[in-house]
Amino acid sequence: MTKAVAVPIYQNTAYELDGDLNHIADVYNVKADGFTYTRIINPTTRALEKRYAAVDMGSDSLAVASGQAATFLAIVNLSSGEVGDNVVASPYLYGNTWNLLHNTLKRLGISVRTADPRRPETFERAIDDRTICLFGEVISNP
Fold it and tell me: Mind telling me which Gene3D superfamilies this protein's record contains (predicted)?
């Protein structure tokens, strides 16, 4: 145990698990806490998640490696999981965000409607009872 005042950055990839085979199986099946492979979770990421949860007085949080992953998870978690949900979005988006909305989400049954952020009434017209969110980027690609 160290007395470091900052969380260390763990750069290793794999972790050794202690305990009997049942406990190790539980860790791999996400039934018990533990670290198996850094792309799934590591001590540094877990510390960040716990601190975010504490700041927001939540029970937990999830840290991901990119904004694209965060956008995807946010939208998918708002979805009912049924074909027909839709997102109303600005057409002025980062190229990969546009691709995520118009291609990836389409394969999941989530459609995208565009609305001009310079004309708020276009958003109002595009919204229906299956709209799960409005999406725009503050600083978008030109």
Answer: Type I PLP-dependent aspartate aminotransferase-like (Major domain)
pTM: 0.76
Where in the chain are the domains?
Answer: 7-63, 67-135
CB 71 within 8 A of CB 97: yes
How many of the other CB atoms lie within 10 Å of CB of 34?
16
Asked whether the beta carbons of 113 and 84 are under 8 A apart, the reply is no
Condensed to tens digits (0 to 9), the pLDDT of residues 30-43 reads 899 999 888 888 89
The candidate with the shortest Cα–Cα distance to 88, out of 58, 113, 116, 56, is: 113
Q: How far is CA 30 from CA 19, 24, 60, in A?
A: 15, 10, 15
- Return the closest-CA partner of residue 142 out of 83, 98, 80, 107: 98
Residue labelled with tokens 């305990």: 19
